[in-house]
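Incident review: delayed structure delivery

Summary: a single-chain prediction request sat in the queue longer than the usual turnaround. Root cause was a stuck worker, restarted by the on-call engineer. No data loss occurred. The affected request and its eventual output are reproduced below so the record is complete for anyone auditing the incident later.

Affected input:
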Amino acid sequence: MNKNLLFRLSLFINYFVFAILLNCVGTVILQVQRNFDITKSGASILEAFKDMPIAITSFLVASFLPRIGIKRGMLMALAMVAIICFMIPLVADEFWYFKLLFMVIGISFAIIKVGVFSSIGLVTEGPKEHSSLMSSIEGFFMVGVLFGNLFFSFFIDDANPKSTQWLQLFYYLGVLTLMAFVFLWLSEVDESAAKDEDMGENNFMEMIKLVLKPLVLVFVLSAFLFVLIEQSFSTWMPTFYNDVLKVPASMGVQAGSILAGAFALGRLGAGPILKRMHWLTFVLICLALLSICIVINLPLAKGVTISENVNWLNAPLIAYIFPLMGLFLAPIYPTVNSTILSSLPKYMHSSMSGLIVVFSALGGTTGSMITGFVFENYDGGTAFYMSLFPIGLMVISLIMLNRLINQKKLQTN
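Output delivered after worker restart:
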């Protein structure tokens, strides 16, 4: 039991570390603009260096991870991240180092995520315990997002835009990664059940065949659109606060923590509501409220006046309410994922999970790069107004998804 607890603890630390590393891309995009005079569209490429390796590695990892061992693969991923975290403060004097950083983070996270999802079933008994541990780990991910933004904000020197003091935080992240490595290395887990269920290259072919089904095609479109919307806000929020609201960079990063807190509340609050409301009705209401917030908030942001010594005690109202859009944005993704997985046989869940990761990564990259391009060539308000277009497309795709699910149920019955 003690070994089990040690292994579980390593899973929590893994997700906490990667929550910080994955979601620091918005902070890094802002800081490389300040430190290296990189353009907004140029800085937005960092999202691709994070998400594309996640997509590619997730697509391939199902084939090779069981062969080398889940625990061994996770240890290799943690070792890579620890090394790059300790290197960055020493060598990151050019933009390409940050591309390398996020490429390593993306590859490692794909291995860790598949490893964690595969391992939960090995250390739990029954669906309730499995669901409980899964929910706790995903919840702890949001805690990492919240604290990560706060940690970075403490290391940013608002008075000196060229200061690289913020890079020192990567030393602490390296230490935290090593802690996760040690806990995982000392723990023991029986992987025989996972190896028995492994289908080798067949997993790869199953994923290819699955994506051609109309139901799955509509779903991956919905997942792609959602993450495109989400990343356009979360990645560019620090830059929006700094460029549009004209607040210090540290406050822009801290706003990301408010967004993460809103996400956590949105996902926790969705559970009881979904017990009483149909998923499509709930998600469409969330999208409608999100659209209303965008239409109301952005004009407020344009007319705001910021004092010279602005802080959270004297900041304008828009600085507080803008991240609260996360309340309506947060429940959509897990609700739609749960809906599609529940509509498929259990033997397809593994392949479906791989597709979710792949198309989420592609959507994240696309959303960040489009927002960065519009941000640079027009303004921040226009960039966020553009999100209304994929929101409209998502409404259509979700209605189609619901119809296909209902048709499948009728055919089954």
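Verification: The domain at 199-413 is CATH 1.20.1250.20 (Growth Hormone; Chain: A;).
Action items: add queue-age alerting; document worker restart procedure.
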